[in-house]
Automatic annotation (TrEMBL):
All copies of domain Rieske, residue ranges: 6-105
Name used for this protein in its record: Non-heme iron oxygenase ferredoxin subunit
Pfam families: Rieske
PANTHER family, A to Z: 3-PHENYLPROPIONATE_CINNAMIC ACID DIOXYGENASE FERREDOXIN SUBUNIT, FERREDOXIN-RELATED
Keywords: 2Fe-2S, Iron, Iron-sulfur, Metal-binding
InterPro entries: Rieske_2Fe-2S, Rieske_2Fe-2S_sf
The UniProt record lists the keyword Metal-binding: yes
Amino acid sequence: MSGTWTYVCATAELLPGEMRTAFDEVTGAGIVVFNLDGDLYALEDKCSHEDFELSSGDFDPGEGSVVCVLHGARFDVREGRPLCAPAYEPVARFPVKTEAGGVWARDDRD
């Protein structure tokens, strides 16, 4: 498990209804951070149905979901759980924090 936090962006660059991406500095995993009404959530930037970036899809802040453009799988950005087929497995959730004017996340999987 990595204890190293990865800088995603300045807090002012991630407004409600927006998302930003980064790559974990230790594991290389893609991370997508969502601002849902001022609360930040980080998921692995990879659809659990097929290896494709969730950040390429549409973030729906009203529903709190992101849709994978490849096959239409939809995920809850707060928990990473799938909301419809063809995805049945959740997307990995990562810790996210704000510190020193920035947004930080990390891949905390063992």
